[in-house]
Design a protein that fits this description.
By secondary structure, the chain is of the alpha/beta class. The protein contains four helices and nine strands; from the N terminus they run βαβααβββαββββ. Strands 1, 2, 3, 4, 5, 6, 7, 8 and 9 form a nine-stranded mixed sheet that branches.
Length: 203
């Protein structure tokens, strides 16, 4: 049985929108796109690539899929990330997409179908795709969080697990935290069930 893991670049205030470029995702009037590159260093880059290399399937929501499908196929095999993404099996959850243009993509009508992928793949990774990740967390299908937390706050933008995307859940640290020279923090958590609440501090 495999796992579904969420790979997420996020700010200290939980924003994950548009890390890769100014025009990556401007929905909602977001004007702070391209905030990740200022914190690039060799160590964090190696950690990101290591996570990509562990994937054997990529699972995306429709909006992130459209961004990726419009970018990575154009990068060619000389880019190691493009080579990995272009060659691996990909799945997009969408009720409106009929034909996926990116080679190797299968369209899933509902997030619940993603749970069946665990029978066929060792590590299925979601990248970004906050709405999809929230629905899978609520359904009990999201097993791991791979978080890269950047030392910046934006005050606006899409936040992970906010509003209807958040559900009570408890996690345990699956790997030792990593801190990179840029100040970026890598945290890996596995879901362990429901949170313990109702206790008085210091009791």
């Amino acid at each position: 049985m495999g796992i579904i893991a969420l790979d997420l670049f996020m700010t200290l205030d939980g924003v994950y929108q548009g890390p890769g470029g100014a025009d990556e995702d401007t929905s909602g009037g977001f004007t702070f796109g391209g905030w990740q590159a200022a914190f690039a260093d060799a160590e964090s880059g190696a950690a990101i690539m290591s996570g990509i290399n562990r994937m054997d399937a990529l699972l995306l929501g429709r909006r992130t899929y459209d961004i990726f499908a419009g970018y990575w196929p154009l990068r060619g095999d000389s880019n190691p990330i493009a080579e990995k993404f272009n060659s691996m099996d990909k799945f997009v959850v969408s009720r409106t997409l009929d034909n996926a243009s990116w080679d190797g993509t299968t369209v899933l009508a509902a997030g619940e179908e993603a749970a069946q992928l665990k029978d066929h793949y060792k590590e299925i990774h979601i990248v970004g795709s906050g709405d999809l990740a929230g629905s899978l967390l609520a359904a009990g299908f999201l097993d791991r969080l791979n978080l890269f937390v950047y030392p910046i706050t934006l005050g606006t933008g899409k936040r992970i697990f906010s509003g209807d995307g958040g559900v009570p859940a408890a996690f345990t640290l699956a790997e030792p935290p990593q801190v990179f020279p840029s100040g970026v923090l890598r945290l890996v958590y596995d879901r362990t069930g429901e949170p313990v609440t109702g206790l008085d501090a210091g009791s």
